[in-house]
Amino acid sequence: xxxxxxxxxxxxxxxxxxxxxxxxxxxxxxxxxxxxxxxxxxxxxxxxxxxxxxxxxxxxxxxxxxxxxxxxxxxxxxxxxxxxxxxxxxxxxxxxxxxxxxxxxxxxxxxxxxxxxxxxxxxxxxxxxxxxxxxxxxxxxxxxxxxxxxxxxxxxxxxxxxxxxxxxxxxxxxxxxxxxxxxxxxxxxxxxxxxxxxxxxxxxxxxxxxxxxxxxxxxxxxxxxxxxxxxxxxxxxxxxxxxxxxxxxxxxxxxxxxxxxxxxxxxxxxxxxxxxxxxxxxxxxxxxxxxxxxxxxxxxxxxxxxxxxxxxxxxxxxxxxxxxxxxxxxxxxxxxxxxxxxxxxxxxxxxxxxxxxxxxxxxxxxxxxxxxxxxxxxxxxxxxxxxxxxxxxxxxxxxxxxxxxxxxxxxxxxxxxxxxxxxxxxxxxxxxxxxxxxxxxxxxxxxxxxxxxxxxxxxxxxxxxxxxxxxxxxxxxxxxxxxxxxxxxxxxxxxxxxxxxxxxxxxxxxxxxxxxxxxxxxxxxxxxxxxxxxxxxxxxxxxxxxxxxxxxxxxxxxxxxxxxxxxxxxxxxxxxxxxxxxxxxxxxxxxxxxxxxxxxxxxxxxxxxxxxxxxxxxxxxxxxxxxxxxxxxxxxxxxxxxxxxxxxxxxxxxxxxxxxxxxxxxxxxxxxxxxxxxxxxxxxxxxxxxxx
Length: 692
Prior knowledge:
The chain is globular, with a radius of gyration of 30 Å. It folds into 3 domains: 9-137 and 153-263, Aldehyde Dehydrogenase, Chain A, domain 1 (3-Layer(aba) Sandwich); 269-479, Aldehyde Dehydrogenase, Chain A, domain 2, CATH 3.40.309.10; 536-686, Roll (Thiol Ester Dehydrase, Chain A). Helix content is 32%, strand content 25%. The longest helix is centred in the first third of the chain and has 25 residues, at 100-124. It is built from 20 helices and 30 strands. The chain is α/β, with parallel strands linked by helices. The strands form 8 sheets. The chain has a 7-stranded mixed beta sheet, with helices on both faces. Strands 25, 26, 27, 28, 29 and 30 form a 6-stranded antiparallel beta sheet that branches. A 5-stranded parallel beta sheet has the order 10-9-8-11-12, with helices on both faces. The chain starts with a strand and ends in a 6-residue tail after the last strand. Strand 9, helix 6 and strand 10 form a beta-alpha-beta unit.
């Protein structure tokens, strides 16, 4: 038999593999369905310290200076490169036991994370390397001393230790936010499926898109990795709670300031509401979700349902419905065979571990009510065959009579295994959920708002995510076990206590938040955002006559004054139909503590403001796209005068478009220099002057 190839690592921007002599004790990784050798894995001789230093130097020098938008565009290009060759990843993924739908979640799901963070980076982050966190904090009465919080890229490397069940998604969901933050990444995939992660990195390396040192890959053991970490480095871990605990106790985390976040095993629950009886859409959705979580990735998901919590007397109905659905929909076998809907576990070692945990569940009070077979597969033609060399376990559902059984809440069989348990009240259902010690996700299937509201308030502190499932959202629901890049993925307690994803939140995990105090001019220079009181220029031409290339932060126009008359107010009321009493009824307005009498409409003031500051002739300003942070501060009475000060506050060129966004600081003042209103005006401005 031909010996399987050695799986290389990608270190210091080159492929590395041990010598045959060093790899004499290499770990053999086998096809999950057939037991055939796929690759051999060894890192003997690999210099992890040099890899980390390469990331901190070369990787930081090439990635950190890029703006958030430039990094975001690279993420999109990386996603496109992987999409073009994803068929290669699907082929490899099938060898891990993943069906086509399992691989879709892993591969297309991972690529989707790149697309999402690319989009969020361009829409929600500035064209800068500094992210502003929160509003300005005034520190002096005269406005000469301000403070605000900024976030800057950590100076180290993001080490990402991943689990075996999602070799692509698990790598990319950690990579995307770190990359967008400007941190180079070192990926350490789990050995049983690391060959899929290796090919993903190979595609990216061959694309030519990667900044030098931005991504490295260690294929195999890296036992000394934590020893070489220091302040400025981060570790993102997915795996067992025991391993997470040992890593969290490492000196690098405890004494050297290395940031550590973990997502670990989780005894997740799904609660069936008392109203969701057989025949209701909620009951059907509950059963569909339970079977899907038992069989997708052969139950090898940290978000899978381990405890099906149902009302008193519903165990048999749910078990019968699960049994019927499995018989009708689930075919276990080699995922490359036609008609197979559930593959094997990732390895025979994993299979044996799952069977040991099932035995512990039985010893702890559980009775198997569905499935329980191992070592046999239902073939596509419906016959039962031996799974020679494969890691197959049939979908298995147990039932517990005692909702307080320790095994139910403590033992996780990381495979196609779930347990049924009954509750008698919302309080007891919440207690059962909480007994899991902290979960990634709990779902609730009910169309009763009172039950859902009460239960959700009780279980939210014990969960990172809650899915509320009913007839109104069942079709659109992404499912119990699907983490989404815009939502937090993580959970308290046993689930690891960490957070991943969650949109821009996860980007900020890889940045340092710092409070900056100084003058408006200094804060403007540092942040690239104009602060009131900073230097401003009113020199001609009008700011609206300047292209993006010509416009500067602090360019300003101060308008002439305009008197507000009673005729203006009444005309606006007649024209718009807004005849609110404060504008039209002197006696009623005077009775209102907020107004001195009849006052101008706020939107009338905004309209007059536009007329005061706008430059009407065609030019670089292309469109007004909206207002942010609008506040009306001082009422305007007939006879008051209005002036507008408009200042270029923030300039954001678009990398891929001939225009950018300009955010203007707009302040309306009256004849006493009191602020009447203030807001941010948003416009699109051409990068160059339009052709004459």
